[in-house]
Amino acid sequence: MIDKKNYNFAVGRRKGAVARLRLYKDLKESLLIGEEQVKKGDVFVNDKKIDAYFNGNTVKATYEEPFRITNTLGKYTITVKVAGGGQMGQVDAFIHAVSRALSTIDEKNKQILKKKGFLTRDARVRERRKVGMGGKARRKRQSPKR
User: Fold this and answer.
1) What is the pTM of this model?
2) Would the pLDDT of 114 be above 60?
3) Contact 76/23 with Cβ under 8 angstroms?
């Protein structure tokens, strides 16, 4: 199995999504996820390759941003468990977790990521539904009888 000291753990959150991330610095032992052999630089989300889980070019550009600005694209192997929320909430939770993990590795990364705003937890959430508002949060439609 994997030695606990071999990875950095981080949690990222956004809206209802939570991402629990393991960033492996170097793989000394072979690691299997599903039926795939893991290589250096691979990123797995919920036991699938990241391209298969988060599909789309705009999403790819979004989740690769922390690696690009810290110059660490393809240097670390990452496994993530993401739960809750929608696709963009999960992508943002993934970015938050990756940024936290990268900032623990190097102080220079922390300064870069903090300046970009990736280490800040985005607290905006959907406003809850109010009673008597017809399924919306704020304003009820005016009755046609009046």
Assistant:
1) 0.85
2) yes
3) yes
